Amino acid sequence: MIVTMRIGYFGLGKMGKNMVLRLLEQGVEVVAWNRSKDPVDEVCAAGAIRLNTFEEITQILTTPRIIWLMLPQGEVTQTILDQIIPFLEPGDLVIDGANSFYKDAIRRSEQLATYGINFMDIGVSGGPSGARTGACLMVGGRKDDYDTITPLLLKIAAENAFAHVGPVGSGHFVKMVHNGIEYGMMQAIAEGAAVLKEAPFNLDLKQVFNLYNQRSVIESRLVGWAEQAFKDDPKLAHISSQISHTGEGLWTIETANELGVEVPIIEKSFDVRIKSHTQEELFRNKVVSALRGQFGGHSVEK
What we know:
Elements: E1 5-10, H1 14-25, E2 28-33, H2 37-45, E3 49-50, H3 57-60, E4 66-69, H4 75-84, E5 93-96, H5 102-113, E6 118-125, H6 127-133, E7 135-140, H7 143-156, E8 157-166, H8 170-198, H9 205-212, H10 221-232, H11 247-259, H12 264-275, H13 283-296
Parallel strand pairs: 1-2, 1-4, 2-3, 4-5, 5-6, 7-8
Antiparallel strand pairs: 6-7
């Protein structure tokens, strides 16, 4: 294995751990840290270097350092960032690859700039399987920094699946809207599946969604995941109809309102998720939950 670069990687959840395993296979040396021990043990067994304390950043990573954060958005990301800043130097680069709010990315860039540290925000799509086999990367930041990390992005992304979309904040903005669109698409698939279920023809939903995914207008990864969900559990008997949600859908709605753009489909899809926690079981909601389980590894069982 030829080592081409070394990065510090903070956060080994479902996405982070899989991305680190991919990087190791691609010849990147990864210095890994996580709040819990077991994921660090797993990636170290695959060849990663353990970071025991933040002080070791200065010893194990040479300047200019590349630090990738893959932590829960909000307070956790900010806390860890604040703790590692004293061990970084001017010219180092911090990348936030989690689902952070785009305004937080802009604020963190300004915070790091006071220390001479560069910052980029990268929206990552594809779920845990994409992190392992090749993700879609939406990159915000300075063009010079983008050019610097392009060799790294080539190792993380699927073929032709990354782009510099604009300045700091734009990567997370594009990913935020991506997730808002995802809400609407999933809701449409779920409503269609509910109508098909009630049809007077005793339709095989696995067969129907397989057919939909053979060059029809609605052919898509989501339709393919719906087919797989019906293959795994034809009646979705073991799937909860309560739909969890993360911040991006609401952020998309709030941002659209700030910009004076109406987003009725995304708003309704978000409203369905909120109400699902107080409603009786609905097959329509089960389909959305099943889709979330297929692509995101989210817990959706009753």
